[in-house]
Amino acid sequence: MTSRLQAAFSAERASLVAYVMGGYPTREGSLAALHALADAGADVIELGIPYSDPLADGPVIREAADEARAAAGEAGFGLAETIDLAREFAEQRAAMPTGSPTPPFVLMGYLNPLMRMGLPKAAAAMREADVAGVIVPDLPPDMAGPWLAASAGIDTVFLAAPTSTPERLAKVGTMSGGFVYCVSSLGVTGERAELPPELADLVARVKASTELPVAVGFGVSTAAQAAAVAAVADGVVVGSAIVRRQRDADELRAFVAELAESVRSAR
Amino acid sequence: MFPSAENVYSGPDAAGFFGAYGGRFVPETVIPALEELTEAFEAALEDSEFTGELEDLRHDYIGRHTPMYRAKRLAEAVGLGAVYLKREDLCHTGAHKINNTIGQCLLAKRMGKKRVIAETGAGQHGVATATAATLMGLECAVFMGVEDIRRQSLNVYKMKLLGAEVIPVAEGTGTLADAVTAALRHWVERVDDTFYVLGSAVGPHPYPLMVREFQSVIGLEIIDQCGARGVDRLDAVVACVGGGSNAIGTFYPFVLGASVNGSGVLGRPLLVGAEAAGLGVDTDKTGASMTKGSPGVMHGFYSYLLQDDAGNPLEAYSISAGLDYPGVGPEHAHFKDEGLVRYEPVTDAEALAAFEQLTRTEGIIPAIESSHALALLPRLAAELGPDAVVVVTLSGRGDKDIDIVREAGLGVD
Ligand SMILES: Cc1ncc(COP(=O)(O)O)c(C=O)c1O
């Protein structure tokens, strides 16, 4: 069965998965950024949940998360607020003229806020907000049983890494929903001057382990890099380079349009 | 008084859970390294060459067995029948931390690693890692919060003398939790050539198990020493709990059901962990994760955690840099829930008073971390009576803390 998330990928061309941080620089600012992403041609939107200890993230995303939390004052900006943001965005898109693209949403955040809210409750809130999937970098497939049991109808996207053994790739490939997120290189999120030369090999190994589309993220920061990745993968995830422009809606829209264009024309 | 351990205790399971707690909640990138580490660790324990070398190093380098000293003047001052101090402060480098770093660095060498990293709060674990790395010819980098670098400058200097690189961590509060995060992030980048020497009974599986194994030498020696000197009755065993490494090493053999010379005479004494209350558990300046926290995931494991309503880990506070961690080792969380160990919060002020008391009665200057355990003695005297026999693990010596106690006004005219 093809899920909504999986359907955002096609065999003909690669898809752009664009990441923005929820609540950054403000709630309104992040809502505007989501519209900019949809209008500029992102195929999937990844929405970050601000968290105080983001183990898998580099400085740009960490600082955006801190600022989002601080901007929201005492109450903070966390999982509940991010889901609410997604819900409002979905409602606003639904009210727009037909033909306005509404890419599926993937929430990206860490496990503890989900546990704190309660896994069934978090999953129910996401379904209600029309969230298509989640990426939880500190939840490997081996530990995901309770979440998977609670989250029917939501795709859980697992990460494949350059260090993953064939056995682990098989596990990630069969347990993922929507797509498989292939981590380009060792390390945390952030822009990199160069992507590793063995990336095509890695993508081929991941693709061999799954029926799902494979998107590559971590380090992709320019249109040229995005095109190079799009030539070998089903999807290209761009995070820090987008978040760095998230304060300025015009700059953001132009950059995402450029990324979308280069991803589409890569092959 | 407490349920029988045989009936309730097992752990960890194959996935690294102690009851509900533990596990491996980390990015996929490091999971294969954790799997490899688990295998290498288990194989090493089966290999007499490894265990023999570890045993020799414990004896000749760390200086084990550490003494178990009967502190008569202290016992009289607190109103107990006998107080024995397990002198981990007499270990090489001044704390129990070296038991673990010698074990882990020996394992790193066996696995063919050339480089180790570590995090440190008080600096004891950093110094112990730098020391073990030097001994084994490994390159070493230590992550340390900027606030702890300020509080523990002597240990920073020692690490540098030992040839380690000290990497300042400015994020967050610049304390232990931030150093752990930074070290984990760095490990994700360098997992292909770097061994992470974790400093307490925390982190993803197999770290809590491995640290317990390397620290259990403390409790096993206590049992032997009780046997050797005819102590056939122990009412309580006490240790301080930061992440919980000295405490797990102290308690674990007793949880299993300690016996002296196979006769079972020590039974199962009351096991008590002292956690840092900071300014008090009713304030927001506390490190008492078991008294004030709730279950959650941080740094790769599920355990009691100080956290806000949205699930963000909170800053912990304690006067002692080694105890201001918002989480606690998962096996302790399990012990707490099962009632196998009792955990009590101790404030900064109580710890300082206990520090002064040991210094003045016995001429032993303890670490402030260890002083938290000592602070439980008067409470235990009130509960167990004047004949009670208690062992306290003195996890480290106080040299590193001299500036802090001076700032707090102790011994200043
Ligand atoms: C002397 C001493 N005792 C205790 C601790 C707390 O650690 P743990 O709970 O792992 O024994 C530390 C940590 O730095 C320490 O230096």
Describe this structure in words.
The complex is a heterodimer of chains A (267) and B (413). Chain A is an alpha/beta fold and 267 residues long. In chain A, 43% of the residues lie in helices and 13% in strands. In chain A, strands 5-4-3-2-1-9-8-7-6 form a nine-stranded parallel beta sheet. The mean pLDDT of chain A is 96. Chain B has helices at 5-8, 31-46, 48-62, 72-78, 97-110, 124-136, 146-151, 153-161, 176-190, 207-215, 217-228, 245-255, 289-292, 330-338, 348-362, 368-374, 377-384, 402-407; strands at 17-18, 21-22, 68-70, 82-87, 115-120, 139-145, 165-169, 194-196, 236-241, 270-278, 294-298, 301-305, 342-347, 389-394. In chain B, the strands form four sheets. A six-stranded mixed beta sheet of chain B has the order 3-4-14-9-10-13, sandwiched between helices. A four-stranded parallel beta sheet of chain B has the order 7-6-5-8, sandwiched between helices. In chain B, strands 1-2 form a two-stranded antiparallel sheet. The relative contact order of chain B is 0.16. The model of chain B is unreliable at 1-8 (pLDDT under 50). The chains are: A alpha/beta (267), B alpha/beta (413). At the A-B interface, helix 4 and strand 6 of A face helix 2, helix 9 and strand 11 of B. Pyridoxal-5'-phosphate (PLP) is lined by residues 95, 121-122, 124-125, 200, 240-247, 322-323, 367, 369-370, 395-396 of chain B. Pyridoxal-5'-phosphate is lined by residues 95, 121-122, 124-125, 200, 240-247, 322-323, 367, 369-370, 395-396 of chain B.
